[in-house]
Amino acid sequence: MQANTFKRSLVAAAVVGAFAVGAVTAERAATIKPAAAAAQPAAAATLAAPVQAAMAPPDFADLVARHGPAVVQISVTHDTAAGVHKGRRGGPDPDELPPWFRQFPMPTPPSDAPSRGTGSGFIVSSDGVVLTNAHVVADADEVIVRLTDRREFKAKVLGSDRTTDVAVLKIEAKDLPTVRIGNPDTTRVGEWVVAIGTPYGLDNTVTSGIVSAKSRALPDDAAVPFIQTDAAVNPGNSGGPLFNLKGEVIGINSQIFSRTGGFQGVAFAIPIDVAMNVKDQIQQHGRVQHGRLGVTIQEVNQTLAENFGMKQPGGALVSTVANDGAAAKAGLEPGDVILKFDGKTIARSSDLPPLVAQVKPGATVALEIWRDGKAKEVSATIGELEDRSTVASAKDAAAKGKLGVAVRPLSPDEKRSGAVAGGVVVEDVAGAAAKAGVRAGDVIVSVNRTLVKSPEHLKELIGSAGKSVALLVQRDNARIFIPVTLG
């Protein structure tokens, strides 16, 4: 600590010294050429003023004082039983976490102790609605929201959406401070931004930077056009707000790129309009729907553009078309280049997935495509992306049921893949099933050798069973029987 302090002192001394040298030099110049100096005082003042104003750093103090109280600390607890079904005691499966998070040290607690984690969030309505990241509260058995005035509330997870990594919480409180919601579309690259959160458990930590880029597509997160920033974001900042200088939230800090596990100048935030759309869907419908076009796309480089007769690279090149998807029904073919989607220009292939994801399934949109050396318009009725959202009732159902599982039907894609012939997919697990070794992601094929047709059928089979059942479960490419003593 002394060495670091000493280095900072040296830097400060060097800066002061530089200014001192400049002052002496200016005085000497004035002494040698007083007439010249006197001839241009007004011009010098005119030039100096705007330069100084432009170089003056922004003051974030008022912004933090006004909006900091709406930023909260989120503490989550996972019990050991929940850890068992994830294949790791005391926490979520590392393979299910975002890539940046996997690089952070994740100490394993004693087998009989619950694991705990910390994240950030912010209040969007005075009656206690809080936004955060889905991965912050994933599989949590208890979520506690702590305000800056040190009050603590047990939160209910109204729902979460893994596709966008957004979760909505509710605490029972009134007249709470709230943030103001901004418009990410008007945000410009190079603008100042402020992040407030709880890095390493240090609540209401303020960092600043600029918008480094917009509409970044990340691996496995193509549905979100991330805002890239160099504001310092570290473990615990996840779920916290990213403010512009107007004091408006324009994003939710979500991920960082790091080779060390710590901040390295590259952070990513979910645009707040994406998050608010998720919030509205969860509050109004209890689930989140995302559009699906049913294509695999790639970038159009210079060589491909020349081969296709295009004047310059652009658009999204369709490499495969899913059977029975929206694109197939619209007549799209491999080799088509999507130039516009619903009137919006596709400059790069990464521009397309976020636009499709935001469209309500069932809506019809116009596409401009490039085929055989000319532009052509087609229309497509957008399908629905496989539901990756979860609502509060899923975990409640798992905890309260005799078996202890929350399940869903197989998706059309899962049925078409042929990997499983039938059954139901385990979304969440607790109680008797968790103790027996059932995991989230397992497919329950049969109960006591009776094939399971639907979630309702599973409930009937368990209801009529005795003290125990034999579940036939498909896990990856293998099937096993798991005996379960019912709760």
Overview of the structural elements:
By secondary structure, the protein is of the alpha+beta class. The chain has four domains: 2-56; 57-287, Thrombin, subunit H (Beta Barrel), CATH 2.40.10; 291-384, Pdz3 Domain, CATH 2.30.42.10; 401-485, Pdz3 Domain, CATH 2.30.42.10. Helices cover 28% and strands 34% of the residues. The protein has 15 helices and 29 strands. Strands 5-4-1-2-3-7-6-23 form an eight-stranded antiparallel beta sheet. A six-stranded antiparallel barrel has the order 9-10-11-14-13-12. Strands 16, 17, 18, 19, 20 and 21 form a six-stranded antiparallel beta sheet that branches. A hairpin with a 4-residue loop joins β6 and β7.
- Total number of distinct structural domains: 4
Placed side by side, the strands forming the largest sheet appear as 5-4-1-2-3-7-6-23
Apparent shape? flat
* Straight-line distance between termini: 56 Å
CATH architectural arrangement of the largest domain: Beta Barrel
Structural class: alpha+beta
The percent range for strand residues is: 25-35%
**Number of DSSP-assigned strands:** 29
Helix residue percentage? 25-40%
Q: Count the helices. How many?
A: 15
CATH class bucket of the largest domain:
Mainly Beta
Sheet with most strands: 8 strands, antiparallel
Give the low-confidence spans: 1-46, 81-109
CATH topology of the largest domain: Thrombin, subunit H
Oligomer: single chain
Mean pLDDT: 80
Gyration radius, in Å? 28 Å
